[in-house]
Fold:
Amino acid sequence: MHGKITVCHQIKTYLCNINSRNPIKRDRDMRYSVIIPVYNRPDEADELLQSLTRQSFKDFEVIIVEDGSSVPCKDVAERYQNILDIRYYAKPNSGPGQTRNYGAERSRGEYLIILDSDCILPEGYFAAVEEELQKAPADAFGGPDRAHVSFTDIQKAINYSMTSFFTTGGIRGGKKKMDKFYPRSFNMGVRREVYETLGGFSRMRFGEDIDFSIRIFKGGYACRLFPGAWVYHKRRTDLKKFFKQVHNSGIARINLYKKYPESLKTVHLLPAAFTLGVAVLLAGAPFCLYSLLPIALYALLVCTDSTLRNKSLRIGVYSIAAAFIQLIGYGTGFWRAWWNRCICGKDEFEAFKKNFYK
Structure:
């Protein structure tokens, strides 16, 4: 009897492994499929899953895809099996875009909701999405982000720099777009038929979400901003990690330019111009201290605005560092990529192979 039980257990384990490696064919009977790629963030995944349990609108499933993590969140996902319609998969590391595709292939929703694992949803998130879709159908959509009360002061300062009018992130926190709205992968929705027709995310390492949004427009589809479907987005937990994130975003902009030359707009040049301007002013400081005046005035402007918005002078001071890092990090990534790709003629992977999948 013991031998039979062992054999049965082995067969069951084998079948489970087969199912985890291959797409599950299911009837498309779910309104939304939430796709969450995770890389070494079990605590943040736990917070996101908790927020999903509190949604007033319940017609959704959750697909967690572990992208080769050394600190997996399988135990976290299993704690929600009796509360959420949730499935967990683990795969070798391949980057966020391909991990989202992996989850999408195993989902069954009419719409795919792409979220980053460092997000928290307000209780009315899906209700807001549903309200917008009931007003008018959408091929793809997205929403803004905010800072949660539980965020550290550094995280709130980083959020300020990514949403403020006085940085290049001004539109993210608002209700209007000056031109086309390009959803980002931290809070993106797309109709399944559109996702499958376009083949999902490309193999780009940086800017794969903007690349996908560009292909949505090129495919004749439309994207909409859903102002009420906002999320709390942690982004990075310290300024060093934040610099790396925005530096890679600057690299991504040149990579996107090489692929879609028309995608480069004047606004994308502002961080590069700001970086060059700061460098020139600092170089002139030993000869004329007044050259530091524009830098000081900008720092004062950021500090005042952030202090009033966050009701905290401490966050206001941190926001000075976050704003300069956001602009200069992006700007240096932009100039670096411009040199490697446009001047030296290197391809995307050759130019930045040390940046991939880290």
Notes: The mean pLDDT is 88. Strands lie at 30-38, 60-67, 86-91, 109-115, 119-120, 140-142, 145-146, 187-191, 223-225, 231-233.
